Amino acid sequence: MPVNTLYCEGNTQSSDIQVLFRIVPEGCVAKPIGSKHGLNHRILGAREAKKMRLLLDSKIAISMMMTLNP
């Protein structure tokens, strides 16, 4: 399964995320997300937000197409 986002415990200054910034391939993003407590909820929330953005983008695109081609 392809991965485009890696979530890591810590902040932008932690050694873990600094290593990930250097080794992840182009097109992949490493994101520090703070404490390991609640990590799963942050990841699930990010997934849901991404789904909502895609849905909104598709609705906007359809609306624009309908406006241009009535």
List descriptors.
70 residues; mainly alpha
Describe the structure.
The protein has one domain. The termini are far apart. The chain has helices at 15-23, 39-68; strands at residues 5-8, 29-32. The mean pLDDT is 80. The chain is elongated. By secondary structure, the chain is mainly alpha-helical.
Structural class, by secondary structure, is: mainly alpha
Question: H/E element string?
Answer: EHEH
Q: What's the number of helices?
A: 2
Largest sheet: 2 strands, parallel
Chain-averaged pLDDT: 80
- Side by side, the strands of the main sheet go 1-2
| N-C termini distance | 41 Å
Helix content: 55-70%
Low-confidence stretches: none
- Strand segment tally: 2
SSE diagram, text form:
Layout: E1 5-8, H1 15-23, E2 29-32, H2 39-68
Parallel strand pairs: 1-2
